[in-house]
Amino acid sequence: MKNIVTLLSGLLFGIGLIISGMSNPAKVIGFLDLEGNWDPSLIFVMAGAISSAFFGFKYIENKKQTTFDDPIHLPGTRHISKELIIGSLTFGAGWAIAGFCPGPALVALGAGRKEAFIFVIAMIVGMYIHDKLFEACKKR
Questions:
Q1: How far apart are CA 97 and CA 33, in angstroms?
Q2: Which of 39, 56, 64, 120 sits between 20 and 30 A of 100, alpha carbons compared?
Q3: What is the largest CA-CA distance in the chain?
């Protein structure tokens, strides 16, 4: 049952990304292009995502387990670190340049988009490099 719910949740998420246009890099770049031909339609997608996440987190905030008895692991800290700022800026720059973030990129990859394939390969290489550099910096 857990796997079926997981599959259906992923399919619903992917369909939502397709319908909203988040898996279309041209639409995302149009949203991020404030000085050009700005497309504000993704504001509604973000507002829906933020509000549903807010209420979802409020619902699980005091729970210790999921519906399927798995432990819930929420971040234990709320402070803003140098790593968080650098990571956020890097993520935002990559999103603005490519028009993809990880979830929509995987959906576009499943749809056979060539640029998504390039992005996902670059994303995997970037995660690998980050992990190696981060581990090296932590050992200092």
A1: 11
A2: 56
A3: 49
pTM score above 0.85:
no
Six-digit token string for 118: 């390039």
Report the C-alpha gap between 69 and 88 in whole angstroms.
32
What is the domain partition of the chain in residue ranges? 2-139
The rounded distance, in Å, linking the Cα atoms of 78 and 125 is 28
Compute the residue count for the chain.
140
Structure tokens at 123: 């994303």
CB 49 within 8 A of CB 116: no
The pLDDT tens digits for 78-96 are: 788 888 898 899 888 988 8
Amino acid at residue number 71: P
